[in-house]
Amino acid sequence: MARKKYYSDMLKIDIKRAMLTSEGHTNLEIATEIKSNELLCLFGHSGAGKTTLLRILAGLTKPDKGRIIFNNTVWFDSEKKINLSPQQRNVGYMFQDYALFPNMTVEHNISFAQKIKDKKEVEKLMKLFDLDILRNQHPEKLSGGQKQRVALARALAAKPNLLLLDEPLSALDIDMRLALQYEIKKAHEILNTITLMISHDLQEVFHLAGSVIMLRNGTIINQGRTEEVLGKKPEKQIYNKYNV
Question: How many Cβ atoms sit within 10 Å of the Cβ of residue 228?
Answer without folding.
Answer: 11
